[in-house]
């Protein structure tokens, strides 16, 4: 169904790694695990909820939490799980909307304390810890004239983002982020946990699973080796905001743009409320990145000439930066709010505007969002041999966002009802913005789930890694 002898890593003797700065932790020391039944319940609860983005925090309680600072701590956490007959859950950034890291009867390994980030200027390969956020990596690389397609939200940890596939900035040019994973270092969850290196030549099955296997990856990644790229010299933005009554014409225009310009430009349609406007609006936003300023200007000028009338506000061909775009995302996806999220890859032959109309026009709160983006031309080329195997020309994500717990039922029901209609015109969903328990769909292509199960049985025969919350019965039929 689509959804439904090992080599030890040799010690590194290269240049001194760059350690990204981090604010002081609320907890001192990492060698001693924090137990749920320990003497300090406040410390446990702070560790349990640390970095969780969704304020709708579930009542799931790990037995113990290890705040890892290095790979030895990770190994000791695995040994603790073995000794206590517990499973292992993993937290890199805590941004998963379903709070995947919170699992009962488990040792939660919090990787936010791993702070390694080192760029080899000659090869452009960066070694980076999974708890580093997209913004931290982006800022570090920008200072050195490099870039990488990190996630659109700045505080997403690289671990979950990369394992899930990595839908990031400048995707028309750079593709899926996981395509640029060259290797991973990991700690196995076996009875004799080892630190391994996996790439295309050694432990290649783990390397395959690390590029899109998501929570089904049967180990704990402690370091990614990523191929970075020269930073583009020009980044420009244009945008057009319309009243929602113009939805059909405006969405049709967005589809025309993507059909005509397949490179150097990201096209996004956003359904949202704007300050001072009572009804929802539809915004078409364009981000263009290139070393060819004339090429970008030509595209944006052409788009500007063809935009529909009745625009409520507009910006055109403005200089921008990833840092500025991160700030906009932070405002659009506020912290300390409750989230319920779903997504779909809409069929290429669907009437996309009609399929998504209810989502864009019936937002339940002023914070909620509907988002469509074109994956052309990325979606038109074959994917490499890796676990990531699901895409289409049209990606759609739905975000119910609210602040009051009394509205949980209303907002969650709205998402489920909208997605019921969208799902009928969908080929599957993206791992990164999903709760597997919300509905059954396809998360990988044909044969991929079965291959992930085989790799899991080999590298995690005791099923210690908690894996995909909601899909455990498929991976471990006897559990």
How would you portray this structure in words?
Its cofactor is FAD. With 479 residues, the chain is of the alpha+beta class. It has a domain at 234-433: Vanillyl-alcohol Oxidase, Chain A, domain 3 (3-Layer(aba) Sandwich), CATH 3.40.462.20. Helix content is 27%, strand content 24%. It has helices at residues 41-49, 71-84, 134-142, 158-163, 171-174, 204-210, 247-260, 293-306, 322-332, 352-361, 408-423, 448-459, 472-475; strands at 18-19, 34-35, 64-67, 87-91, 106-110, 116-120, 125-128, 146-147, 181-188, 195-199, 219-227, 229-230, 234-243, 265-272, 281-290, 313-319, 338-346, 369-374, 394-402, 426-428. An eight-stranded antiparallel beta sheet has the order 16-13-15-14-18-19-17-20. The chain starts with 17 loop residues before the first strand and ends with a helix.
Report a brief summary of the structure.
By secondary structure, the protein is of the alpha+beta class.
SSE map:
Layout: E1 18-19, E2 34-35, H1 41-49, E3 64-67, H2 71-84, E4 87-91, E5 106-110, E6 116-120, E7 125-128, H3 134-142, E8 146-147, H4 158-163, H5 171-174, E9 181-188, E10 195-199, H6 204-210, E11 219-227, E12 229-230, E13 234-243, H7 247-260, E14 265-272, E15 281-290, H8 293-306, E16 313-319, H9 322-332, E17 338-346, H10 352-361, E18 369-374, E19 394-402, H11 408-423, E20 426-428, H12 448-459, H13 472-475
Parallel strand pairs: 3-5, 4-5
Antiparallel strand pairs: 1-6, 2-3, 6-7, 7-11, 8-12, 9-10, 9-11, 13-15, 13-16, 14-15, 14-18, 17-19, 17-20, 18-19
Helix pairs in contact: 7-10, 10-11
């Amino acid at each position: 169904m689509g959804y439904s002898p090992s080599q030890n890593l040799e010690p590194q003797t290269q240049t001194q790694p760059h350690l990204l700065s981090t604010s002081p932790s609320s907890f001192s020391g990492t060698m001693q695990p924090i137990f749920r039944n320990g003497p300090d319940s406040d410390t446990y609860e702070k560790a349990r909820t640390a970095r969780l983005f969704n304020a709708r925090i579930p009542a799931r309680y790990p037995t113990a939490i290890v705040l890892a600072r290095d790979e030895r701590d990770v190994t000791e956490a695995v040994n603790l799980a073995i000794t206590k007959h517990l499973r292992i859950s993993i937290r890199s950034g805590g941004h998963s909307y379903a709070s995947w890291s919170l699992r009962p009867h488990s040792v939660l390994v919090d990787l936010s304390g791993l702070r390694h980030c080192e760029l080899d200027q000659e090869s452009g390969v960066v070694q980076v810890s999974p708890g580093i956020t997209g913004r931290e990596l982006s800022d570090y690389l920008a200072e050195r004239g490099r870039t990488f397609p990190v996630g659109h939200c700045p505080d997403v940890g690289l671990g979950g983002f990369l394992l899930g596939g990595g839908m990031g900035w400048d995707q028309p040019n750079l593709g899926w982020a996981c395509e640029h994973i060259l290797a991973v270092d990991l700690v196995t969850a076996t009875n004799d946990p080892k630190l391994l290196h996996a790439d295309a030549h050694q432990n290649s099955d783990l390397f395959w699973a690390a590029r899109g296997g998501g929570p089904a990856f049967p180990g704990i990644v402690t370091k990614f080796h990523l191929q970075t790229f020269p930073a583009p010299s020009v980044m420009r933005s244009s945008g057009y905001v319309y009243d929602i009554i113009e939805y059909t014409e405006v969405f049709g225009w967005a589809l025309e743009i993507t059909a005509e310009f397949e490179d150097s430009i990201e096209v996004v349609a956003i359904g949202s409320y704007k300050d001072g406007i009572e009804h929802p609006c539809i915004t078409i936003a364009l981000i263009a990145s290139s070393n060819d300023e004339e090429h970008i200007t030509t595209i944006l000028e052409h788009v500007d000439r063809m935009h529909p009338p009745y625009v409520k506000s507009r910006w055109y061909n403005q200089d921008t930066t990833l840092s500025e775009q991160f700030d906009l995302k932070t405002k659009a996806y506020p912290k300390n709010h409750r989230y319920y999220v779903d997504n779909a890859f809409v069929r290429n032959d669907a009437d996309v505007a009609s399929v998504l109309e209810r989502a864009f026009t019936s937002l339940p709160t002023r914070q909620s969002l509907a988002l469509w983006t074109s994956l052309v031309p990325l979606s038109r080329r074959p994917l490499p041999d890796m676990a990531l195997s699901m895409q289409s020309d049209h990606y759609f994500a739905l975000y119910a966002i609210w602040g009051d717990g009394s509205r949980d039922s209303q907002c969650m029901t709205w998402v489920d009802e909208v997605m019921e209609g969208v799902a009928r015109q969908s080929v599957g969903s993206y791992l990164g913005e999903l709760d597997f328990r919300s509905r059954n769909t396809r998360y990988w292509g044909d044969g991929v789930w079965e291959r992930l199960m085989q790799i899991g049985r080999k590298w995690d025969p005791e099923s210690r890694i908690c894996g995909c919350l909601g899909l455990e019965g498929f991976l471990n039929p006897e559990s």
